[in-house]
Amino acid sequence: MLRRLFQRSGSKPATAPCFVDIHCHILHGVDDGAASLDHSLRMARLAEAGGIGRMIATPHRKATGLGREQIQSRVTQLNAQLKKEGIELELFPGAENHLLLTPVEELVPLGEGPYLLTEAPASHLGTQARELLEQISSAGYRPILAHPERNASVLADPGCLSSLVEAGLMLQLTAGSLTGNFGPRIRHCAWHLIKKGLVQFVASDGHCCNHRPPTLKAAYDALHKFGGEPLARRLLVENPTRVLEGASLDV
Predict the structure, then answer these.
(1) pLDDT at 250
(2) What is the pLDDT of residue 9?
(3) Order of all β-strands in the sheet with 115-119
(4) Rounded to whole angstroms, how far apart are CA atoms 245 and 212?
(5) In this structure, is residue 7 part of a structural domain?
(6) Exposed (0-12), middle (13-18) or buried (19+): which is 96, by Cβ within 10 Å?
(7) Distance of CA 218 to the CA centre of its chain
(8) Number of structural domains in the chain
(9) At residue 164, does pLDDT exceed 50?
(10) Which residue of 102, 130, 169, 237 has the smallest Cβ count within 10 Å?
(11) Domain limits at 160?
C-alpha cells in the first residue's frame, strides 16, 4: 500500500515554497530539544537551509513549567541572536501543552491566535480526551493534536480520531513520520490519516540536527508526489500561516 502511495500522480517539485513550522523545540536549555545556544543556532541554520522561513518555538509545558511571558522572552532573545548571526529565520512563541495534565488557565497558544498545540500521553489517547478538548474549545482555543500517528491508541485504531476531528480537533503529523524516520508502522498510520483527509498540518517537531531535525522539504516532496502541490502547500504553508495570523481555518 505504501509503495503505491509514492507511485501516484504528481512529479517531484524542483523548488518548494517558504515553509512555516508550527512545532519545534529550538529554545535551548528548557526541555529535550536544543541543549545550548550553539545547538539552537545550528538548528536554525538547518531550518533556513531547508526552506523554513517562520517557526513557532514550542517547548513542552509539562516539562518546563514555562508560562507565556517566559517563552516570549526567550523567543525575543533568540530572535535577536539569529539576526546577529545573519540567520533569516523568524521565531514566534508557542508551547506543546500536555492534554491531560495542563489546567486550561495555564495553556499557552501558538503565537497570538486561538490555536493550541496539545499532546497526549504516548501510551494512550485517554477516554476523557473528548471532554478535555471540549473544555479547551469552551475556553476559546482551537485544539491541534501533535503527532497522533505516534500514539499507541491511534496506531491500534486510526479510526478513533474521526469523531474527534468532526468535533473540531485538528491534527499535526510529524514530517519524519511521512518519510519513514519513525519506522514503517508509524509511516503507514501517518499516510492513512492523510488519505482519510483528517490532517491539517505537518510540522518538524525538531529536537536536534541529526535524528529529529527541523526540516520539512522531504515531507513536502512526498506529499506533492502523492496529492500534488495543493495538498503539500495546504499542510506546510497555507494552514500553518493561518495559525500564525490567527485566521480562521476550515476543517
Answers:
(1) 66
(2) 39
(3) 97-98, 115-119, 142-146, 170-174, 201-203
(4) 27
(5) no
(6) buried
(7) 15
(8) 1
(9) yes
(10) 130
(11) 18-245
